[in-house]
TrEMBL record:
Pfam families: ABC_tran (PF00005), DrrA1-3_C (PF13732). It comes from Paeniglutamicibacter antarcticus. InterPro entries: AAA+_ATPase (IPR003593), ABC_transporter-like_ATP-bd (IPR003439), ABC_transporter-like_CS (IPR017871), DrrA1/2-like_C (IPR025302), P-loop_NTPase (IPR027417). This is ATP-binding cassette domain-containing protein. Belongs to the ABC transporter superfamily. Keywords: ATP-binding, Nucleotide-binding, Transport.
């Protein structure tokens, strides 16, 4: 597990991170979301030691993080970082060898990753001759070359077509399943919803929500769809019930607590037929919108 503990960072007189704490558990993907300028890249840079925090710390598997840990991490920085004029395969080979892989292992791994991303035929081309989306695939491949023990990826999915998103997400899910903590930032809430086991939401340098998707869903608003023919308007009169929408027999409601939900269900049965009484699982995207409001 990777942990950020009370990180604070200023730029001049501006505080861009304030007491930021969250964990990135092994066995799962953690989505890092927040508006432009919220502080995601700054946090990732601090985790990777590219930037120092003014207070707070980072730990990996319950010990203070060291350069040796970080050398075994995979990092895809916001500014990317491969050489545009160098051949794709050469760069991946070189990076693998920098991480201690033999020339043969590095080459095998590089070809395997390029193949996985459907761009093995571009191995001998200069990076700059690839489309932006394909360059992005190479950048992600670079971060995966040495079988990292943790992955920190700054917007790895931006600019990818749907097939590339699929191949990248299945590869990352495989790595996560082997116990590699993965933190990735994204503005694509639908993807976050699809991929993440954990979510960290940053707003103006502060954590506004963090935890497992299940915990966050359980903590979120308790919305229900209630269908009581012929007309669900009576729900408006019920204490502890906020009616968000009503159309004939169907209402979308929020209960103040579970007991209110049970009381309303009994009242609905007393009135006649109840054809639907169903909790709505909020998506992570909805949770994000709610906490960021
Ligand atoms: N080197 C720097 N000098 C001064 N201010 C900086 C520096 N780096 C980042 N900032 C400021 O810190 C704040 C957080 O920026 P950061 O890049 O971490 O946000 P972000 O959440 O990654 O945003 P985005 O989603 O747009 O990538 C911003 O206001 C940014 O202008």
């Amino acid at each position: 597990m990777l942990e950020a503990i009370n990180l604070t960072r200023h730029f001049g007189s501006r505080t861009v991170l304030e007491d930021v704490s969250f964990s990135v558990p092994a066995n799962g993907m953690t989505g890092f979301v927040g508006a432009n300028g919220a502080g995601k890249t700054t946090t990732m840079r601090i985790i990777m030691g590219v930037l120092k925090s003014h207070s707070g710390s980072v730990s990996f598997n319950d010990t203070a993080i060291t350069a040796a840990h970080r050398a075994r991490f995979g990092y895809m920085p916001e500014e990317r970082g491969l050489y545009p004029k160098q051949q794709v395969l050469d760069q991946l080979n070189y990076l693998g060898q920098l991480h201690g892989m033999s020339r043969t292992d590095a080459r095998t791994e590089a070809i395997g990753l390029l193949d996985r991303f459907g761009i093995a035929d571009r191995a001998k081309d200069k990076l700059e001759s690839l489309s932006l989306g394909n360059q992005q695939r190479v950048q992600v491949a670079a971060s995966l070359m040495h079988h990292p023990v943790a992955l920190i990826l700054d917007e790895p999915f931006s600019g990818l077509d749907p097939l590339a998103v699929d191949s990248m997400s299945s590869l990352l899910a495989e790595r996560a399943a082997t116990g590699v903590p993965i933190l990735f930032s994204s503005h694509q809430l639908d993807l976050i919803d699809q991929l993440c086991d954990n979510l960290v939401v940053l707003s103006e340098g502060r954590i506004v929500a963090a935890g497992s998707a299940e915990e966050l869903r359980a903590r979120a608003h308790s919305r229900h769809v209630v269908v009581t023919p012929p007309d669900a308007g009576w729900l408006r009169e019920q204490p502890g019930v906020s009616v968000l929408d009503v159309a004939g027999p169907k209402a979308l409601v929020e209960f103040a607590d579970d007991a209110t939900g049970q009381r309303v269900l009994r009242a609905a049965i007393d009135r006649g037929a109840v054809t639907e009484f169903a909790p709505l699982r909020p998506s992570l995207a909805e949770i994000y919108r709610e906490v960021i409001r």
